[in-house]
Amino acid sequence: MADVASFDSKLAQVVERFFTVGTWKSMWYRLTLSVYDNTLTIPRGFDTCRYVEACAGPVPMYSQFHRFAGFGIAFDPVFTNPSGLKLIDENAQTFRIPIGTYRLRAVATEAADPGMSFTGGFDADGNEIFATENLVLVNGSSNATTIYTGLPYIKKVPTANSVLLYSVDTTSTIATLIASYAPGETIPEYRQYAGGCITSTTDDPPTVNAICKIAFVPAITANDLVIPGLIGALKLGLMSIQFEDKVDPTNADTYMNRAIALLDSELKELDMGEQPAFFVSPNFGAGSVFNVR
Length: 293
What we know:
This protein has 293 residues and is α+β, with helices and mostly antiparallel strands. The chain has three domains: 2-21 and 227-271, no CATH class; 28-93 and 191-214, no CATH class; 102-188, no CATH class. 23% of the residues lie in helices and 33% in strands. It is built from four helices and twelve strands. The strands form two sheets. The protein has a seven-stranded mixed beta barrel with strand order 1-2-11-5-4-3-12. Strands 6, 7, 8, 9 and 10 form a five-stranded antiparallel sheet that branches. A hairpin with a 2-residue loop joins β1 and β2. α1 crosses α3 (231-245) and α3 packs antiparallel against α4 (249-271). The longest helix is centred in the C-terminal third of the chain and has 23 residues, at 249-271. It is globular. The chain starts with a helix and ends in a 22-residue tail after the last helix.
């Protein structure tokens, strides 16, 4: 069993590095995501997205730099332009951002003490909170006492089942679902985007299709998928880790580079049939591609 655990650890190191340096076969998935208040949140298990399908076509994800490159100093400060989405939070903890004054409510199917903690945030007067409120989970609803206008930092203990989090408006007492935490999720962190015409569907809430990259998850059991699954690349990666453990960086880099080259070759072979036609505009060398003239 010790040999199996050691191998799993080495394999996890290799796969994690593959995820860090590139995106390979079987890492992109097509998701249908809900949009809340013009905000799109990437669910757990996914790192980032390449684009969403909205406005009758693909809408790219823009960084602040690419927004400036495309629109210059006149770019829309709130980014309502439908040409792309902007990243607004890398560590969002809910898929919906509550407004007004509210309390937090957790709904669970088991008891846990401690259960959840809420640190910081902003109170009913807009002042920063420095205290922590601990919430005991029960089989049913648990209500926090602090009134917020800005969300606190949320932590949850491991549980056997999912835990739902609601914001409860202090005036109307209406409870709105803002998060659903998986059993093993203790510190939620999601990437969140806004802007564009991502609310242009008739669904309630609106939905969009997105092409997203899965997050690295180590293979633990015999049935877990190993992605990327190219055996030659995995073998070369494991050899690289062996040389690294022997403090031989030269050979470690050599074998890791060979592994990456093999993954690149597989990706290029798959991409050959997906090359788009390139149309040249009579006015601009690359048509409407920003900053290419």
